[in-house]
Amino acid sequence: MINYGLLAIPLIAILVIGGVISFFVVYSFYPEKHENVSIDGKCYELVDVAHQKITNLTAEMKIRKMLLQISKVEPQNAIIPIIFNGKDSEIKNLVNRYDLAVTSNQKVIYFPNINGSVVTANITKTDLQRIVGNLSIFDVLPSSKSVVGSIGIQPNKYITYDEDEDVSLLLDKIKKSRVMEIIHNSDGVDSAECRNET
Predict the structure, then answer these.
(1) What φ, ψ does residue 49 adopt, rounded to 5°?
(2) In this predicted model, what pLDDT tens digit does every residue of 120-155 receive, in sequence order?
(3) CA–CA dist 85, 107 (Å, integer)
(4) pLDDT at residue 198, rounded to an integer
């Protein structure tokens, strides 16, 4: 007759050890964050330090773009339409602090159950310059974005299509140069297969 009590203890030990080993095997294959970039027909995969640098660069370029757009706005007392999002309490604080004229407010629910809004509003050029001038990269990064970091300037009569195009071309040139610096001077850069974009 087989004594199942004696078999249960070694069987449980084997299952526990197997589970721990499986966890570490799966964890070691967990996908790392990366970014694929294409510069002058060559493609690169950026991981680790290089990925963090490209993420920071993207945030920095968003801030620069808004500063350049604001610099195109005349007159100095112009009212600029903006859009932003976040938790309702943070939205309320921003609206009250800068006396924003809200033009629309779309309610949303953020995970898990946080009430939020997507808001369009009007703000003075001076206040917008102050907000954007004080933004940090961490305000704009997706992982730590604040309400002020979510601000975007909406199309308006003060920034012409040609001016906006000039801003974009200048930023593309700056970003390309900075990406090349990251590629040539950072750990975590590998050649990658170029894929056609569809």
Answers:
(1) -60, -45
(2) 999 999 999 999 999 999 999 988 889 999 999 999
(3) 10
(4) 42
Task: Compute the half-sphere exposure of residue 109: CA atoms within 13 Å on the CB side of its CA.
Answer: 3
Q: Residue 29: pLDDT band by 50, 70, 90 thresholds?
A: low
> Distance between CA 173 and CA 61 in Å, rounded?
11
Kindly report the three-state secondary structure assignment for every residue of the chain.
CCCHHHHHHHHHHHHHHHHHHHHHHHHHCCCCCEEEEEECCEEEEEEHHHHHHHHHHHHHHHHHHHHHHHHHCCCCCCEEEEEEEEEHHHHHHHHHHCCCEEEEEEEEEECCCEEEEEEEEEEEHHHHHHHHHCCCHHHHCCCCCCCHHHCEECCCCCCCHHHHHHHHHHHHHHHHHHHHHHHHHCCCEEECCCCCCC
Distance between CA atoms of residues 88 and 117, nearest Å = 6
Cα torsion at 66, 72, 78, 79 (round to 10°)? Answer: -30
Q: Pairing state of beta strands 79-87 and 114-124? A: antiparallel
What is the value of pTM for the model shown? 0.76
